[in-house]
Design goal:
Mean pLDDT: 90
Low-confidence stretches: 28-32, 280-285
Radius of gyration: 26 Å
Strand content: under 5%
Largest sheet: none
Distance between the termini: 71 Å
Number of strands: 0
Shape: elongated
Helix content: over 70%
Order of helices and strands: HHHHHHHHHHHHHHH
């Protein structure tokens, strides 16, 4: 079945190529010939059939070629759509090409003022970098997506992207950047979500410089008094005491107790265990 579909796709692609090579084709830019649009139609139809056959390379190339023709005919919207589709196909085959095509789509959408759509594609690139564990690259594109989403007043979505930036900064050991991101997300409105972001910032402080925690906790309480009465606050206080007593068994047990009643994410667990294993607890006595 796949072979038959691919053969049909190749026939359509060849028909498109014939249109490109036909006599007088390049006059179409000036003479209004429909040869260009016919060639584009052949390429996009071929791309869809290649997708059905899961031939991602050929599908990506077909949509890319359609996008290139769209650009020549100054149909930027269709070009952006085809480049984005090409990126989706190459994503399954060639990461570098996927990013290249997504970037072309982002540029076109941004020039058209379609910033929300551009942001969603930035997120796709960030997710692709995340899958490859290229956390530095993921941070760059999540931050770009966040900026575009804020510009379009999609603040909740923008904040979720920035949360990713903070998480990856911490994983990469860039604790000051992570703390700045989480503190920024906690304010200035200081809704109930401030508790979670102050908690994340505290965890980063534990990894970076726990001796600063006393002054940090005072600042967070002053900014959001309700924080002092939360389970998150009391867990941080307890873990600091465990560190001061060099009681790592209790440290691990306190995390297990908290996790049993308020599930910790993989990020929380990773960073809390990093703090446990990397600090010189004797210096905190």
């Amino acid at each position: 079945m796949a072979s038959h579909i691919e053969n049909k796709a190749k026939q359509l692609r060849d028909e498109g190529l014939k249109k490109l090579n036909s006599r007088g084709f390049f006059q179409s830019w000036f003479g209004g010939s429909d040869k260009a649009s016919e060639a584009i139609d052949y390429y996009t139809r071929a791309g869809n059939l290649f997708k059905m056959a899961k031939n991602w390379q050929e599908a990506g190339e077909a949509f890319r070629d359609a996008g290139d023709l769209n650009c020549k005919t100054q149909d930027d919207l269709e070009a952006a759509l085809n480049y984005s589709e090409a990126g989706n196909c190459f994503r399954k085959y060639d990461t570098a090409k996927a990013v290249q095509l997504y970037t072309k789509a982002i540029k076109l959408y941004s020039e058209m003022g379609r910033f929300f759509t551009a942001a969603k594609i930035e997120q796709k690139i960030a997710e692709l970098m995340e899958e490859l564990e290229d956390f530095s690259g993921a941070m760059v594109h999540y931050e770009l997506a966040s900026d575009l989403l804020h510009d379009e007043n999609h603040h909740t979505m923008a904040n979720k992207c920035m949360q990713k930036v903070g998480e990856f900064a911490a994983i990469e050991g860039k604790y000051q950047k992570a703390i700045k991101v989480f503190q920024g997300l906690a304010g200035p409105l200081l809704t109930y979500t401030a508790i979670e972001y102050f908690f994340r910032a505290c965890i980063c402080h534990l990894c970076n410089d726990p001796q600063m925690m006393e002054s940090v906790l005072i600042r967070y309480q002053e900014a959001y008094p309700k924080f002092k009465n939360t389970r998150e606050y009391h867990l941080i206080i307890t873990l600091l005491d465990c560190m001061a007593q060099n009681d790592m068994d209790r440290y691990a047990n306190e995390i297990r107790i908290y996790d049993g009643t308020g599930k910790l994410s993989n990020w929380h667990m990773t960073m809390l265990l990093r703090a446990k294993s990397s600090l010189d607890y004797e210096s905190l006595r």
